[in-house]
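Figure 6 in text form: structure in, sequence out.
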């Protein structure tokens, strides 16, 4: 970390933050950026939200939410009180004192980092950068990105990091749909390019939550990847054990719940139909990709990825087995997929295993429909374009299906009714384990 004395720009910016006079600009108003904008607004900061999606901006200006678990009232209040301004005009970045980057960092089809969004954002910021601003990257990425890409793209002879402007990394820790933890009570890990950068970034985040300062941006970047790699590896472990337990005739969920009674040395993880979301299926591969520069193979990450990617195929195998027991072929069978969000009670379907399962079902000749109370229409993605709408659940509709696949265990589902009226259920979430009458109808996958 570079050391520096406090410059005039640093002193002025710290004073603005302390007095809540600093304007916070947030680039990317998705599942991370929008909650962050709301929380800074709640703490008295004026916020400018930036996004390239005109539809999002128009909805926010009307006080409407496009993320179901974020209430309209939270947004409408901030807009009307002037604490939240939203725009597609990125020239207004000059109006912001603190710029937080919350843009997507997906993978390519070859499982390599796609930093095009971040590259474009860095270029836009460089065109509007002025003295006295701090730039903080929140998007998950490989260790070294902040200095290798942002610092390289922003610093000039007239704009020196730690003196004229400030640069830091603080990984997002948003958990969509979690009613207990949010941006106001999740500690923020912060790493700065210089000690001055760290001080300014820490001051900003201290206004909304507890701060955990670390020695560099690289440490902060690797911290986020460690968190999600830890989850990926442990989920892969229980997914593999689920397959083994099934062959042994053992209920893996009963095993996990029994093990969870140990008060030390064990953390329960639960199996499912595959990984989804914007973090766990993606972040570990950023580290694997970067590790190649050091001639190092991240074997745990690769193995966990292989197991988790294979789970939708396992669900299809179990579906075929279950249909065969009912003297049915998957080809031509009517199959209802329940839930396409990547986890329960949210409207986020990014990287959802439900999409992969639907694709495999269609490829094998099944007649596929879906229901998800959180996702009324399937969005087109880079990999999928199903052009389907959610089918309402009725007793007649369930009775007309040859198989029902529970992919996401939303709380809104009446599992007793689903079991009662369905001929055959393949349950990937253990959602029907306590429902009377499930024996013989339900196959766990």
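Output sequence:
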């Amino acid at each position: 970390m570079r050391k520096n004395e406090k410059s005039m720009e640093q002193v002025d910016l710290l004073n603005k933050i302390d007095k809540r006079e600093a304007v916070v600009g947030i680039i990317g108003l998705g599942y991370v950026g929008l909650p962050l904008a709301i929380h800074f607004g709640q703490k008295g900061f004026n916020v400018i939200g930036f996004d390239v999606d005109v539809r999002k901006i128009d909805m926010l200006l009307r006080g409407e939410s496009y993320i179901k678990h974020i209430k309209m009232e939270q947004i409408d209040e901030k807009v009307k009180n002037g604490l939240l301004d939203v725009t597609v005009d990125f020239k207004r970045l000059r109006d912001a004192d603190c710029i937080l980057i919350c843009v997507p960092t997906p993978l390519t089809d070859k499982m390599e980092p796609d930093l095009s969004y971040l590259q474009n954002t860095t270029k836009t910021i460089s065109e509007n950068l002025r003295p006295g601003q701090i730039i903080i990257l929140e998007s998950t990425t490989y260790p070294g990105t902040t200095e290798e890409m942002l610092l390289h793209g922003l610093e000039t002879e007239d704009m020196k990091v730690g003196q004229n402007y400030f640069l830091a990394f603080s990984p997002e820790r948003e958990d969509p749909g979690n009613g207990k933890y949010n941006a106001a009570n999740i500690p923020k890990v912060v790493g700065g390019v210089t000690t001055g950068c760290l001080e300014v970034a820490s001051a900003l985040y201290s206004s909304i939550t507890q701060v955990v300062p670390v020695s560099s941006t690289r440490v902060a970047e690797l911290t986020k990847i460690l968190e999600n790699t830890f989850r990926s590896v442990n989920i892969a472990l229980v997914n593999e054990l689920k397959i083994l337990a099934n062959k042994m005739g053992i209920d893996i969920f009963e095993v996990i719940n029994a093990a969870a009674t140990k008060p030390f040395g064990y953390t329960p993880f639960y199996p499912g139909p595959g990984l989804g979301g914007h973090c766990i299926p993606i972040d570990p591969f950023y580290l694997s990709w970067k590790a190649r520069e050091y001639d190092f193979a991240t074997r745990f990450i690769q193995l966990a990825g292989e197991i988790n990617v294979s789970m939708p195929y396992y669900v299809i195998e179990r579906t075929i087995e279950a249909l065969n027991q009912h003297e049915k072929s998957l080809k031509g069978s009517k199959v209802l997929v329940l839930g396409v969000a990547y986890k329960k009670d949210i409207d986020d379907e990014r990287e959802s295993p439900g999409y992969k399962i639907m694709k495999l079902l269609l490829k094998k000749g099944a007649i596929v429909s879906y229901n998800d109370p959180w996702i009324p229409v399937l969005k087109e993605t880079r990999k999928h374009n199903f052009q389907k709408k959610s089918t309402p659940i009725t007793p007649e509709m369930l009775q007309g299906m040859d198989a029902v696949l529970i992919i996401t265990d939303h709380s809104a589902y009446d599992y007793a009714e689903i079991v009662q009226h369905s001929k055959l259920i393949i349950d990937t979430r253990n959602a029907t384990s306590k429902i009377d009458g499930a024996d013989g109808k339900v196959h766990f996958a």
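Caption detail: The CA atoms of residues 19 and 45 lie 9 Å apart.
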